[in-house]
Each structure stands twice: as C-alpha cells, then as structure tokens.
C-alpha cells in the first residue's frame, strides 16, 4: 500500500485489510502480510499523525518513505500480489504508467479509489485514476457517477467496483442521561477564507455559551505545521486564540481518532467533512451547515436531498436534523446493517484477477496521444518520462559501506526536513503576507 497523507494512509491501510479479508478483530483465515509505504511529499504524515490514525493493520514503526522511483523498484523486487494506491489523482496516474513500464511477467492487481466524499474535480480525478484494475466507489451513487464519466469519454468502465468507506464502524448512538456533546468536525481547507473560518468558529463558541450544560468540542485534524490531504493555512487553533472574551469552560479543542470522539457525540456538525458519513453510519444526529451557502466550493452541495442541511440558528434553537433514508441508502452509509458485506464484490474481483493468469499491461486512458499537453507534466513531477521509465538522474546509485550510507541518509533527512519546513511553514506565511 502506498499513501501520501494521513487520511489516505488510513483509507489505504483499511482498504488493504478489507480486500485481504482481515477481520476487524481476531486473526484472518489465512496468513496475510500488509506493508505500507509513504510517498514523500508536502503532506507526508508525521509519526504523531500516523499514530493518531489508530490501529489499521500496518505497523507504523516499519513504515518508510519512498520516492515514486523507489516505490517502483520495491514492486519490482518484492512482487506483491496487490498494490493499493492511496494517492492524489496525479500520483496515481504516474504510478500506473510507472508500473506499466516495469513490464513484469507477473504484475500485481492495482486498486485505487477515494478517501471520502467526491464533491469536486470528479472528471479530472477519475480519469487520473483510470487504468487501475479496480477503482473503488464508496457508494452506489458514486459508482453510477464514475461509470458515466468513463463511458462518456469512451474509456473502459469495468474497473469501477462498488464498496464503501473502509473506516465506518463503531457502536450505534445511544443517548446517555446527563450527557449532551456537540462536536464540530473541522476541515483543513473548507471553508478557506479567514472570514469564513472565523465565522464558523465564532458561532461554535457562541453555541457553547448559549448552552453551558453542553460539552462543545472542536475536532481538529492536525496541529499547526502538520499537513493533511489538504493544506491548512489558517489553523483553527490560531483563530481560537483571538476569540474575544476567550473560550468558555465547556468548549475544548480535541484531536485523536474520530471514532473515539464519535463514541461520546450526541450531535455532529460540519460543513462537508466525511466525518458526517461516519456519524450517520452510527445513527448519530448530524448537521450540515448552510450558513456560508450551499456551494460546490464548500462541498456541502453533496448533501442536497439528505435532510441534514441546516444553520447554526436552527441548531442553537435545538433542531436535530433527520436524515432521508433513501438518500442514505445511496451513499454507502449502510446504517441498516449491510456494511459487513460491502467489500464482498471487491474481494471477489481481486481473487478473480489473481486466479486468472498473467494480467495484461496496465492501460490508462491518458497517454502521450490522448493527453500530450497534460500527461508529461504529471509524470515529470514524479521523475518519470513519457514512457513511464525514470528520467535521467532520478535513480540514486546505491553506495556501499556503512559510513557512506549513514552520510547519505543524514543528508537526505536534512534536505527532507528543510523542504517540509519551506512548504509547510514558510510558504503559507509568504502567501498570507501577499494578501495583506
């Protein structure tokens, strides 16, 4: 499994477990080895973020960072049966071309998909994932949309396989006497502007002041300086420091596993976070905010028809939205108890591909013929040429000797640290200064 951010690590590791038939508890029916690699980049998760994801079946202590070229060498040398690409679309496309260029006599089954709600860049993201043996759709709704995109450009749509988000689970919601916990699930880039993020935070704080008997939690994805799938340039932690009058005693900022937070949640509020689907799966009252509009840029348009869209004014007044059951059924939430079978089709497809003899060469929709002005840049970002082979200078020769190896690793780590500092700390400051 190859991932490029904390959330994709979680999705990829859990997807690998479900495809391998590893139960949530207990031992699998047959020996299964799941190994994880991190694609080096701006969103590479820190050890804290990896630990916070929770027990997902991959030993984080053995995880190593790799470049695209190093990943391809690993696949060539270790010959895995299945590769799960838990990456942004452009990286998936580059890995598909790189894997095709390996021209292995026995190549792995390649699986990819989406971490959560697909509310933007549908065509772009899907076509960048085309070429994988299996493109997982998290719901019937997504499956229909995915096939329509592929068929609409004349691409093979047989790879689209309906499943569900792999991290749904937990006990159904049970109200407890004396407990009333409201949780706002924050997102790194939605909303984006300082004014909008300040507004959302202010209303959350005001909700806590209006209801001193409630525990109001702001669930955060990352600490300042850490990156997730999306860049967060205005952390709520910083904005919270500037709230007039300070934060009320019943208001707290929390981190940790979303599942553990949902264990004590009585109302989940968000703009468009995938946490809403986790909450709905457990039948927790869930609200999608309309305060900033219902807009594609916010992603809350995905919840049109759900019965969940409401405002802080209504929530302050005690409203608890009721989800539309037909909408839920199409979203892969599986609150009806069918979740256990959600990956049966995908597992059967993997088994069929593995048993069917040598697999044909991977054939993505994008080629030097179909996308000559787009594909070269995507591949070059990962140091691959148009033929999928590494560009000159992309492969660092292995040096012999412990001392040379130690020096090389030290230099690489220092360079990596400097790069991350520049991308995660310096660049956002410069961008904010430019907006003044």
Radius of gyration: 22 Å
State mean pLDDT (0 to 100 scale): 86
Which structural category do the helix and sheet elements fall into? alpha/beta
Beta-strand content estimate: 5-15%
Number of helices: 15
How many β-strand runs?
Answer: 13
Low-confidence stretches: 399-412, 429-436
What does this entry look like structurally?
With 436 residues, the protein is an alpha/beta fold. It is built from 15 helices and 13 strands. It has helices at residues 6-19, 47-53, 68-78, 89-102, 122-129, 140-152, 194-210, 236-240, 258-262, 275-281, 312-316, 325-330, 344-355, 375-380, 402-435, and strands at residues 2-3, 37-39, 64-66, 82-86, 109-112, 134-137, 160-162, 181-185, 215-219, 251-254, 267-270, 286-289, 309-310. The strands form 2 sheets. Strands 3-2-1-4-5-6-7 form a 7-stranded parallel β-sheet, sandwiched between helices. Strands 10-9-8-11-12-13 form a 6-stranded parallel β-sheet, with helices on both faces. Strand 8 (181-185), helix 7 (194-210) and strand 9 form a beta-alpha-beta unit. 39% of the residues are buried.
Quick summary:
This protein is of the alpha/beta class and 436 residues long.
Defining traits:
11% strand; 6-stranded parallel β-sheet; globular
SSE topology:
Elements: E1 2-3, H1 6-19, E2 37-39, H2 47-53, E3 64-66, H3 68-78, E4 82-86, H4 89-102, E5 109-112, H5 122-129, E6 134-137, H6 140-152, E7 160-162, E8 181-185, H7 194-210, E9 215-219, H8 236-240, E10 251-254, H9 258-262, E11 267-270, H10 275-281, E12 286-289, E13 309-310, H11 312-316, H12 325-330, H13 344-355, H14 375-380, H15 402-435
Parallel strand pairs: 1-2, 1-4, 2-3, 4-5, 5-6, 6-7, 8-9, 8-11, 9-10, 11-12, 12-13
Helix pairs in contact: 3-4, 4-5
């Amino acid at each position: 499994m190859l991932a490029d951010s904390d959330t994709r690590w979680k999705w990829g590791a859990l997807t690998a477990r479900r495809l391998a038939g590893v139960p949530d508890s207990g031992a699998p029916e047959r020996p299964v080895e799941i190994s994880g690699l991190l694609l080096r980049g701006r969103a590479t998760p820190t050890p804290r973020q990896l630990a916070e994801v929770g027990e997902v079946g991959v030993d984080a202590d053995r995880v190593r960072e790799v470049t695209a070229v190093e990943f391809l060498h690993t696949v060539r040398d270790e010959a895995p049966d299945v590769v799960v690409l838990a990456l942004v679309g452009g990286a998936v496309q580059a890995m598909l071309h790189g894997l095709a260029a390996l021209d292995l006599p026995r190549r792995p089954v390649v699986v990819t998909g989406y971490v959560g709600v697909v509310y933007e860049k549908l065509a772009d993201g899907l076509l960048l994932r085309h070429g994988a043996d299996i493109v997982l759709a998290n719901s019937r709704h997504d499956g229909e949309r995915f096939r329509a995109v592929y068929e609409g450009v004349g691409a093979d749509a047989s790879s689209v396989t309906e499943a569900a988000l792999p991290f749904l689970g937990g006990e159904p919601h049970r109200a407890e006497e004396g407990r009333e916990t409201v949780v706002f699930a924050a997102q790194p880039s939605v909303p984006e502007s300082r004014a909008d993020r300040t507004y959302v935070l202010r209303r959350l704080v005001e909700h806590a002041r209006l209801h001193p008997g409630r525990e109001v939690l702001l669930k955060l994805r990352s600490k300042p300086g850490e990156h997730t799938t999306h860049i967060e340039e205005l952390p709520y932690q910083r904005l919270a420091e500037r709230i007039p009058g300070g934060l009320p005693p019943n208001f707290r900022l929390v981190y940790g596993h979303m599942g553990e937070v949902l264990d004590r949640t009585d109302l989940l509020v968000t703009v468009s976070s995938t946490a809403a689907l986790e909450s709905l799966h457990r039948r927790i009252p869930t609200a999608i905010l309309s305060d900033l509009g219902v807009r594609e840029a916010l992603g809350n348009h995905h919840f049109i028809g759900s019965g969940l869209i409401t405002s802080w004014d209504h929530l302050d007044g005690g409203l608890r939205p009721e989800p539309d059951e037909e909408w839920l059924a199409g979203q892969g939430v599986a609150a009806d108890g069918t979740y256990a079978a959600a990956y049966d089709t995908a597992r059967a497809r993997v088994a069929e591909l593995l048993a069917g003899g040598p697999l044909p060469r991977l054939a993505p929709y994008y080629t030097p013929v179909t996308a000559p002005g787009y594909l070269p840049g995507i591949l070059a970002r990962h140091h691959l040429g148009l033929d999928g082979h590494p560009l000159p200078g992309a492969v660092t020769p292995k040096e012999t000797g412990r001392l040379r190896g130690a020096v090389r690793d030290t230099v690489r780590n220092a360079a990596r640290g400097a790069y991350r500092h520049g991308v995660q700390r310096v660049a956002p400051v410069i961008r904010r200064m430019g907006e003044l």
